[in-house]
Amino acid sequence: MTTAPAKAGWRFRQPSVIPGFGLTLGFSLAYLTLIILIPLSGLIWRSAALGWADFWAIATDRRTINALEISFGTAFIAAAVNVVFGTIVAWVLVRYNFPGRRIVDAMVDLPFALPTAVAGIALTTLYAPNGWVGSLLSPLGIKVAYTPLGIVIALIFIGLPFVVRTVQPIMEEIDKEVEEVAATLGANRFQIISRVLLPGLAPAIVTGFALAFARGVGEYGSVIFIAGNLPYKSEIAPLLIVIRLEEYNYEAATAIAAIMLALSFVMLLVINLVQTWSRKRYG
């Protein structure tokens, strides 16, 4: 008499021929706890010592709100711009061979290697009213340096590689024959891009946007030189935290940092949900 096979129950991990799961998992959890969880827990604990009334007073202070709006708003705009132009740069590097292509490819990584303070000084020199670019824009009534526009340009500079290097490998996996087949079936250029290429690139584009946005929110070195750091106009949240620390107001500094942490977590969670949805839909 045959017996029915036993139903497979829930398992913590799938069977694998690769040994060392317990050791590597324990090391990973310990490392993440020491490097990420403990510092963040200390930040939350220090801000919680304020009490709800004091914390709410700092969170609703007009200067704090304005600094957060500038930091998150400029980071979002810069990341959105990088999604468009970063995808175009990745397309050019993947689809075309031209003289100096390797040099252009290497220049994309320049913001990774360049110290952020150097980038900020260079951008300020260019876009100041008496700079090479700023002197051309001033007669048109366009002021870049010491305005939120200057912050956006600085964040575009440091965030571009995140989009390009995220989209480029995925784009290399898409064969040119796919575009040629779509063209032979009567698709125009816009249809090829919107219906053939973008669905496959969507998860990578969302990932690049998330990385560029996260980098921009916490950027400090390349921004303080070109921002002007004027309260209520071009003051970013990381700078406000430094100011509170210099005033020995550690509670206010940790409160602002905790607010930035919570807002960043919510926005990245939304981005990850969109990314998961796009992967399920487009593969």
From TrEMBL:
Regions crossing the membrane: 21-45, 70-94, 106-128, 140-164, 196-214, 252-274
GO molecular function: ABC-type sulfate transporter activity
Compartment annotation: Cell membrane
GO cellular component, one term: plasma membrane
Topological relation to the membrane, as annotated: Multi-pass membrane protein
Predominant cellular place of this UniProt entry's protein: membrane
Residue ranges of every copy of the ABC transmembrane type-1 domain listed in the record: 68-271
Function: Part of the ABC transporter complex CysAWTP (TC 3.A.1.6.1) involved in sulfate/thiosulfate import. Probably responsible for the translocation of the substrate across the membrane.
Quaternary structure annotation from Swiss-Prot or TrEMBL: The complex is composed of two ATP-binding proteins (CysA), two transmembrane proteins (CysT and CysW) and a solute-binding protein (CysP).
Family classification: Belongs to the binding-protein-dependent transport system permease family. CysTW subfamily.
Protein name: Sulfate transport system permease protein CysT
Lineage: Bacteria, Pseudomonadati, Pseudomonadota, Alphaproteobacteria, Hyphomicrobiales
